[in-house]
Write a structure and sequence with these properties.
By secondary structure, this protein is mostly beta strands. It folds into 2 domains: 10-166, no CATH class; 169-202, no CATH class. It contains 2 helices and 12 strands, in the order E-E-E-E-H-E-E-E-E-E-E-H-E-E. The strands form 3 sheets. Strands 1, 4, 6, 9 and 10 form a 5-stranded antiparallel β-sheet that branches. A 5-stranded mixed β-sheet has the order 2-3-5-8-7, with no helix packed on it. A hairpin with a 5-residue loop joins strand 9 and strand 10. The longest helix is centred in the middle third of the chain and has 4 residues, at 80-83. 15% of the residues are buried.
Length: 202
């Protein structure tokens, strides 16, 4: 009835995740943070990122990031949508041994939130490193490393990225109403809430 208590606490407990990693490739003239090298191999520029480190037990550190998103932008021209160039971005994740029961992906809006061969990393046994090269347009990008078990379609970002209750996140809330006269739940509301700024407009 209307006075029934809401007791769903245990079911609502879930990992907070970690802040996304990021890189800035708005310019190909200078190296920003996390960029190791920029070079031209015609017809494309190549950008090598510094090798990332797994951080499952790293102390939480706030990053003012985009929650996995990206935006296209360049610093040398006027129209970022038409003048931005495509560049090859090289990712490196050192790992002592390859994970035999699944694969590691570079994940976020840059992968369209999917797991495909385009964003699947390959293990280099000689360098003991997972590697991936992606063709991306100049801009500012967020990303994370996720592990996906063979035969599954569920990402595990805690294995490599860790999880912290302090992590800033956007949450998409769906509100349903069940009318006893019908056999379905009716969606009556949708709201995006930011964990640090609940009044933020999206």
């Amino acid at each position: 009835g209307l006075n029934s208590p809401f007791d769903y606490n245990e079911e609502n407990i879930f990992p907070g995740g970690s802040e996304y990693r990021f890189f800035d490739i708005k310019s190909i003239r200078y190296q920003t943070e996390y960029i190791k090298q920029i070079y031209l191999r015609k017809p494309y520029y190549h950008i090598e990122l510094y090798p990332d480190k797994p951080k499952p037990f790293k102390v939480y550190f706030f990053e003012n990031e985009l929650n996995g998103k990206y935006y296209i932008d360049i610093q040398e021209e006027n129209n970022s949508e038409t003048d931005a160039d495509y560049v090859f971005v090289h990712f490196y994740l050192p790992y002592d041994v390859p994970l035999i029961d699944g694969n590691i992906f570079v994940f976020g809006a840059l992968s369209d939130w999917n797991f495909t061969k385009i964003n699947q990393m390959v293990y280099n046994f000689e360098k003991k490193t997972y590697e991936l090269t992606m063709l991306l347009k100049q801009g500012y990008y967020n990303y994370e490393y996720v592990f996906v078990k063979e035969g599954e379609n569920k990402a595990d970002n805690i294995l490599i990225e860790g999880s912290h209750y302090e992590t800033e996140n956007d949450y998409l809330i769906y509100v349903y109403h069940r009318d006893n006269r019908f056999r379905y739940d009716k969606l009556i509301g949708i709201k995006i809430i930011n964990s640090l700024n609940p009044k933020k407009d999206f």
